[in-house]
Hints:
Blueprint: H1 2-39, H2 42-55, H3 62-76, H4 80-93, H5 99-109, E1 122-127, E2 136-145, E3 148-157, E4 160-171, E5 175-179, E6 188-192, E7 200-205, E8 208-223, E9 226-238, E10 245-251, E11 255-262, E12 267-277
Antiparallel strand pairs: 1-2, 1-12, 2-3, 3-4, 4-5, 5-6, 7-8, 8-9, 9-10, 10-11, 11-12
Helix pairs in contact: 1-2, 2-3, 3-4, 3-5, 4-5
Amino acid sequence: MKKLAASVFVFTFFLASLAGISGCGAKYAFSQAKKLEKKGFYVQAVEKYLKVSRKYPKDALAPEAMYRAGEIYRAKLKIYPEGINIYLELLKNFPDSGIWLKLAKMGVFNSPSYFPMADGSAWTEVDSASTGKNMKAQWYCQEISTGVYKLTKKYFAGDKLVTTVARYYSIDNLELVESKSQDFADKTVLLKYPFNTGTSWVTEQDGRKIKLTVIAANAGVKTAAGQFDNCIKIQQEDLNLPGSYKYVYYAKDTGFVLMATGTSKTEHRSSELLSYSLKEQ
């Protein structure tokens, strides 16, 4: 009986030791990955992060490690397909990972980002006719909570401040939503992943139903801020006013660059990007 009890004790101790070693292994590899990332050794850091997530999938650090690997491909190396593959692996293997699940969806949506949001980023939009002499809007981005951003837009007529408008933005289930309130009680879907030509959806804006359609995924356009290639071009149609359109162009890793109005055959520029200053997402 004593021998049996001793055997059970040894076996239990052995299992506990294995658990401890597993935890230490994951923690050590994660720490090494962070050091490599900080030094700019991104490929080696990715290997370490993926080792944590794949070798120790039950460790609490596993989903974060996989997310960090995806972020290196997206934000540092700009190899978007690889980043997307890693984010999708996280969504599949860690469906209950809370914040990492949400951030992985944001990572997919932002690979590349056509509406880059980061604390401290700023854009200046001007009317196309006078390049800002008549109208100018200054956008300022502030992160108010994880994944939720506030854009404050100051509108000027000449040098005179006319009004200030605030809108809230978040990426929810691979959709960029805009709202007048922080609780997103009213929301408009501005962009929807994937950004393929022909993708279309209906949403509400100011109590009116509007239809948005991606009509080009590689449009080129020149604005006061420069030349932008591979833009997505969104057609907006107020369903109460069929045949009258607004066109919005979004550039990779820049965001809004041009707005125009018109019909299905003609466009007239109304406003465009003059300058921008982006912080890392």
